Amino acid sequence: MGNVVTQIACGRQHTLAFIPSSGKIDSFGLGGNGQLGTRSTYNRMSPAPVKGLPQCVYLEQSFCVKRIYAGGDQSFAHYALSQDDSPPVDLRITRPDGQIYTLSDDLIQKWLNHGHGRLSPEITNEIDLVFSSANCLNGSFLSESNPDHYNTNSKCSGVDVNMARLLYHRLIQPDYPQVSQIVAASMEKHLLPRLSSSPPDIEALRLYLTLPECPLLSDPSNYTTLTIPFAKAVVSLKDAPRKVLGNWWSKFEPAVFQRLVELYKEVVVYLLRMQKLGIPLSEQRIFTCFLHTSLKFLEILHSVNERAGQIIQYDKFYIHELDELIDIRNDYVTWFQQQMFSVMDSQVTMCKYPFVFDAQAKTALLQTDAVIQMQMAVDQAQRQNLHSLFASGGGVESVNPCLILIVRRENVVGDSMEVLRKSKNVHYKKPLKVIFVGEEAVDAGGVRKEFFLLIMKELLDPKYGMFRYYEESRLIWFAHKTFEDIDLFHLIGVVCGLAIYNLTIVELNFPLALYKKLLKKTPTLEDLKELMPDVGRSLQQLLDYTEDDFEETFCLNFTITEEIFGTTEVLELVPNGTDISVNKSNRQEFVNAYVDYIFNTSVAPQFSAFYAGFHKVCGGKVLELFQPSELQAMVIGNTNYDWKELEKSTEYKGEYWADHPTIKMFWEVFHELTLEKKKQFLLFLTGSDRIPILGMKSLALVIQPTGGGEQYFPVAHTCFNLLDLPKYTNKETLKEKLLHAIEHIQGFNLV
Question: Is the pTM of this model over 0.85?
């Protein structure tokens, strides 16, 4: 209102303001008890003068306002003689002795100047005061940039985390051990135990952002006294403050968020190493609590990361040391039993926190689940055989412990459907053995790999019209309309499940949305951008458009135009969609409906059959442990080619070694090949042109010499990733023979 105010006083729900230029007091807020001094009991939303003269006369002496106060529903003014030369108190001028201690550059320098040798009681008390008080730390490291700390809210913390890091690192130094000891003791004994699960205000949450930047929390000797108690304070927060903290974390720079994640990954590794060395029985309970708290804290961070659209990549949560620190398979069995039989067990199972498992660990989990499921199927088959033997006195055909597929190359789809249709669900869990009619190959893995390759190639053939191919993304999705039997979609789902259970990758160029849906996660606009980049960009432009002529520019309603079997159809995305125009207020609903139509509504029967087939083989608890992209890599492998790693991890037999002239020529020729030819070589050697989730080294390529002359071609033993390489003496011959071999790959002989 243009007046300078030098004093503010706040009651329960009313405020006083002193204006020195006029000596007047303004008030606003609740006035039911007359606390506003307006000679009424009305509430006021805007300031109004308190009734009465700015100066008063008592016993013929003049008085004026020096200080105002408020409390509850009361208001007070302290008057002094007018001839008193001292001006009214100006609360804008801060008094050093009246301010809360905060951690500042000057205060740290003062402590460090006295930090050598024995600290004085004054310095010791100051350090203890700051690090025993949540208030002192919450008032420290306040942001002065835009938005500054005056704008603190549930989305903005008002603190400068980078400043906190710099100041903490300046304070905690090896050269000043006594300072570090007092800081650690104060936090351990006073600060952390007093943190409330329900802070009085969001500003009281600030220290949860800054405290992890203190180097003391990164010191393993302080894990159990500082780092884990801090995590426990976060885990113990009620939902509302934890949600605010999550909002603040989601605004972190990736490097800052990553530091927090790495800190608690290191804590978990430290605890697991202790466990491996052996924990005394008397300390087992507290150790379990420590491990649970640390993992629960990581779980909170992981949830924040997912909700924020991945501040850091999900694989940054992987703890690669798990394989050496725990028995992953035993952990899965324990978790499986807890899930299946609702067992309440105090034991911490890492499978409750699957985000910490890397690709190698999750592969081990999948193998463990496959072994459990297959063993259960084999045991059932053997029990059935034994029962049949006694029940009928023999003569009854035994149940095979493997799932046998006898197929003809020319009818691989029909033969497979026939066998799988007759198979019971439990049979899908058995190890798969494939026999091609008229071929002598013994299936040690290679025949099975070729079977998956052939059947997927056949099922995805455009002649069936089951899938639509998108040229721009080179991906496929279920066709909206098809004349094919819905059972074929079921078969593809079964084949994908069998491939996972039998650890064989298949060629299936679906977008990530497929794997999201298999894991019951909802596809988004980002998934549509992957499948249909042009459409995805258009929808994003729709959301980003800021001008007022929205409807005139886009002229859209809630419909979609589809071309089906050569005819164009207009389909409604919502009931009466033709009559609903897309405008600024409903454009998000339009985009959501569009995405839902493409990925869900339009293909519901087809995907439902695929889903049922997949889960018939691969359903169960183990899938809950996977991210969509991890499941995708398990099904189709990945294309993270590292050709040097392939060379480095290759083994040699017989006369060959890494520096043998033929081997050196082979790798020279190989590295000169185009990417497509290199991928063809992988297909020739392994049965797939993609690599397993564990990377190139897991291919375990072996090269051995063969007898005969240079007129022979290289031969691949696909079952074993073994290459028979004749001892060529010149580069041109080697290249010619290798290219001929990899371009004529179909058909198995005895391998």
Answer: no
